[in-house]
Amino acid sequence: MKTKNILQALLVSLFLPLSATAQKNVSIDWYGFVAAQSWINTHESVAGAEGFLYLYPTDENTVNPLDPTDTHDRNAIPQGSWFGTMARLGFVLHGPEIFGAASRAKAELEFSGHSAPGSILYRHAFIALDWENSTLTLGQTWHPMNDLFPSTVGIAIGSPFNALNRSPQLRYEYFLGNDKKIKLTGAAIFQAANGTFGPAVAGKSYNYNRWSMMPMFYAGVDFTLGDFKVGGGVEYKRITPSIDYADDNKKYYLDGICGMIQAQYNKDKLSIKAKTLIGQDMSHLGICTGYGQVANLNPGEIQYSPLAASSSWAQVQYGGALKFGLFGGYMSNWGAGKDLSTVFAAENGTIDNMWRVAPNVQYNVGNMNLGIEYELTTVAYGTRKPNGTVTDTHNVSNNRLLLSVMYAF
Q1: By C-alpha distance, which of 191, 278, 184, 285 is closest to 238?
Q2: CA–CA separation, 297 vs 300, rounded Å?
Q3: What is the DSSP string of 250-294?
Q4: What pLDDT does residue 264 have?
Q5: What dihedral do alpha carbons 43, 48, 51, 57 form, nearest 10°?
Q6: Confidence category of residue 393, pLDDT binned at 50, 70, 90
Q7: Distance between CA 277 and CA 233 in Å, rounded?
Q8: What's the N-to-C CA distance of the chain in angstroms?
Q9: Residue 3 confidence (pLDDT)
Q10: Shortest CA distance to 286 belongs to which of 254, 258, 305, 263?
């Protein structure tokens, strides 16, 4: 891992001279930011990027093997991180006309952590061809269900209520009319860093999608109606949770479908955004769902059934240089509709629902953004029933205070 990080850093340094030696018909625009953030949590939580990417609180730990009468929550431990550093560096290359289209390419890396080498996240790397009424994109970038996200101070941008996924894809977008106010999108998407749960690998893995030999397929439409933008889309996914190597490498498949609707309103200093995701096994989108193996089958039979869920968020933001925002999110587990013997999902499928309320204040001065955000995230944990729903729940909450200073270029 250390060697990989060093090689990625070297790639960035090798690209830097290109801005001075680029051909006349090629231009490079560099962008990025450096941020220092401090946060306080009141409960142990699931998070990434050394705590920068916050998700949700873990379940209670009330077991004391030395004293069974002691049932206080051992995960309710306040903790903080002071002036943690994070940086993002990317470039957009604009090249000559190819196949009658303007050509461009984009690459972006993110660095986070308190000590070297920290972590390096490969975010974007794609090629795009832009015709008058259409765009073809090839490479890794945001999943189409990530086209709209809230303006939060935290880098999780509303996850796990909002989709959070960057994947390799072939995407085609077509704009209708002279004003281009209708956009049709079609994409074939493969999993990479944002994979799904399964029995063969601990945690998430892209292997279950790659074994299926089939990309995920997305189709969507977006409309611009004055100050409003509305849209939606549907994704079909097939994965291979298991392979029977004793039976000539027989594969067992699981199909799933999910849909998304979104809307936003922007006028003067007011911005309103909202999105709802409904579907099966949306774990690759960062939603706390998954799937399970169906129980009570004949000996030797293997069948899988997805857990369904809904996840919604909305944000209102108002202001100019000084902005006030309020974010709210809610996720609900709907179960599988079949009895399951084993579940592969976030927290082993013991989450019934979760919600978050998060006000923030941001102030922009020059290239600098100053932000403060408070998040109250509550998860209803319980006992998983055979059909994948959860009963006998108890709430676990985390209070998070985030202070951020970001310098963008």
Answers
A1: 191
A2: 8
A3: EEEEEEEEEEEEEEEEEETTEEEEEEEEEEE--GGGT-S-EEEEE
A4: 98
A5: -10
A6: very high
A7: 10
A8: 29
A9: 43
A10: 258
Q: Indicate the SS3 state at residue 146.
A: helix
Do the Cβ atoms of 139 and 126 come closer than 8 Å?
Answer: yes
**What is the longest distance spanned by two Cα atoms in the chain?**
75
> φ and ψ at 348, to 5 degrees?
55, 30
More confident residue, 220 or 14: 220
Q: 290-294 and 270-280: which strand pairing?
A: unpaired
Pick from 280, 367, 365: which is nearest to 34 by CA? Answer: 367
As a residue count, the chain comes to 409
- C-alpha to C-alpha distance for 158 and 162, rounded to whole angstroms: 5
- CA angle (237, 241, 242) in 5-degree steps: 145
Identify which of 339, 344, 329 has the alpha carbon closest to the alpha carbon of residue 379. 329
Q: Is the dihedral of CA 385, 199, 329, 173 positive or negative?
A: negative
Short-list 173, 200, 204, 172, CA closest to 191: 204
pLDDT reported for residue 117: 56
Tokens of 214: 């089939």
- Are 378 and 397 within 8 A, CB to CB? yes
Residue 281: CB partners within 8 Å, gap ≥ 6? Answer: 196, 237, 239, 254, 256, 258, 289, 290, 291, 306, 307
Tokens 């995920």 — which residue? Answer: 216
Helix (H) and strand (E) counts in the chain: 3, 23
Contact (Cβ atoms closer than 8 angstroms) between residue 210 and residue 190: yes
| Pair of tokens at residue 138 | 């090839």
* 100: region left, alpha or beta (phi > 0 left; psi from -120 to 50 alpha): left
Cα(372)–Cα(370) distance, integer angstroms: 7
Beta bridge mates, 92: 29, 106
Q: How far is 265 from 255, CA to CA, in rounded Å?
A: 35
Of the candidates 398, 228, 204, 360, the residue with the CA atom closest to the CA atom of residue 282: 204
Residue 13, helix vs strand vs coil: helix
The answer to whether the beta carbons of residues 366 and 405 sit under 8 Å apart is: no
Q: Both tokens of residue 74? A: 């051992």
72, pLDDT greater than 90: no
Residue with tokens 């994947």: 167
* Spatial separation of the C-alpha atoms in residues 231 and 144, rounded to whole Å: 11
